[in-house]
Amino acid sequence: MTSSKELVSGYYNKLLKRNAGEPEFHQAVAEVLDSLKIVLEKDPHYADYGLIQRLCEPERQIIFRVPWISDNNNVHVNRGFRVQFNSALGPYKGGLRFHPSVNLGIIKFLGFEQIFKNSLTGLPIGGGKGGSDFDPKGRSDAEIMRFCQSFMTELYRHIGEYRDVPAGDIGVGGREIGYLFGQYRRLTVQHESGVLTGKGLTWGGSLVRTEATGYGAVYFTNEMMRTHGESLDGAKVIVSGSGNVAIYAMEKAQELGATVVGFSDSSGWVSTPNGVDIQLLKDIKDNRRERVSQYVKETTGATFNADGTIWSLEADVALPCATQNELNGEHAQMLVDNGVKYVAEGANMPSTPEAIEIFRKSGVHFAPGKAANAGGVATSALEMQQNASRDSWSFEYTDQRLHKIMSNIFQRCDQTAKEYDREGDYVIGANIAGFKKVADAMLAQGVI
Ligand code: GLU
């Protein structure tokens, strides 16, 4: 009989051949399949009916041309993507990323992660992801609007409240969702609020959605620390990034008594031994759309570094909230040597496999993104609930729901790891708990 190990490596080798040149997708799949070996040993029926092969193959992949004209009258042609990965649990759900690094492999890795993340939220949402290799940096507001309108002119026919519900991700925030929604409404002649999440508050958006990914990651971290008899109160925290996820992770961490000792963007990192002035940072990043070096010019006690790495700072907790593979083995070793005991991923797959291995071996408590950053998409699902019932909830109520969802995700990861004799391994806990719910639904729905 073929062992579960052989079975899984067989699937993986085929996947490598069929999806050549997509290293991030390979990485995301490899991590999940590694966890599934243990599941298949206990429950071999999860390999029945081609379940694993079907899970790794998107239900649909849409690639399209996005032409647009810049302010200086040049024609630009970008590529648009929407990967509708799995809808066994609900409509496809996941963000849109606008960044020059975007390609099919990146969108597939993000879409694949989203399946398990969305399953972990306990809410009825499938997994999908999309975006474009468009670079919003330095573009005028009018250029962003024209790009979003062109992008939606193709995407609108593939999405809908019951079909696929995009949201934001890197490079797509409230402004972009506004332009995308406007064009969708114009093309469909319907005010279908449930088609996108992350909307403005007066036209179907939800309170707490902006804060949700960062707040959620911190709720998860605090829950994980509580299990080990500690808390964020008095802790030193490194937060990489300075986008939406990072800013609200910093805000909540400091609210809970932590000191945020550093943050970053692609131009460098800032050391803040006395904590971060969140209002100032929000103004610089959100309103003025400037770089983090500006922060040190407008405050005292902070230093900007264009070289080196934010991971060289001393801290108790690290929250990578920037982008995939930003934290490698060398960085992980620095963190361990400097006393970090907890790492929770606010971004999607920010730690490389080498980094995760170092955390595991060194006894660092590590929360993978698909669990720790699920608060954003969970609150998107709460936005969908409010849209479906034509209602809007208070900040306090929505925040309570988010808090409860994050605690439940932590408990599920913790318990599942224990069930499989891997106590404290939240990677295995998240992958297996996320997988089982989707797998049961797929088996019940037949070979489709
Ligand atoms: N882009 C976010 C994520 O990675 C949010 C997706 C959503 O709200 O649909 O989960």
Please explain how this structure is put together:
With about 450 residues, the chain is α/β, with parallel strands linked by helices. Among the domains are: about 60-190, Leucine Dehydrogenase, chain A, domain 1 (Rossmann fold, 3-Layer(aba) Sandwich); about 210-365, Rossmann fold (3-Layer(aba) Sandwich). About 50% of the residues lie in helices and about 15% in strands. It is built from 16 helices and twelve strands. The protein has helices at about 5-20, 25-40, 50-55, 105-120, 140-155, 175-190, 210-225, 245-255, 280-285, 295, 330-335, 355-360, 370, 375-390, 395-420, 425-445, and strands at about 60-70, 75-85, 90-100, 125-130, 165-170, 235-240, 260-265, 270, 305, 315-320, 340-345, 365. A seven-stranded mixed beta sheet has the order 9-8-7-6-10-11-12, sandwiched between helices. The protein is globular and about 65 Å long. It starts with a helix and ends with a helix. Bound molecules: glutamic acid. Glutamic acid binds near residues 94, 348 and 376.
Describe this structure in a few short sentences.
The protein contains 16 helices and twelve strands. It is an alpha/beta fold. Glutamic acid (GLU) binds at residues 93-95, 167, 169, 197, 348, 376-377, 380.
Number of strands: 12
Strand order of the largest sheet: 9-8-7-6-10-11-12
Spatial gap, N to C terminus: 27 Å
Mean pLDDT: 97
CATH classification, class level of the domain at 212-363:
Alpha Beta
**Main sheet makeup:** 7 strands, mixed
Assign the CATH architecture of the domain at 212-363.
3-Layer(aba) Sandwich
Q: How many DSSP helices?
A: 16
Radius of gyration: 21 Å
Low-confidence segments, given as residue ranges, are none
Small-molecule binders: glutamic acid
Oligomer state equals: single chain
Shape: globular
CATH topology of the domain at 212-363: the name is Rossmann fold
CATH-defined superfamily of the domain at 212-363? NAD(P)-binding Rossmann-like Domain
Order of helices and strands: HHHEEEHEHEHHEHEEHHEEHEHEHHHH
Helix content: 40-55%
* Share in β-strands: 15-25%
Structural class: alpha/beta
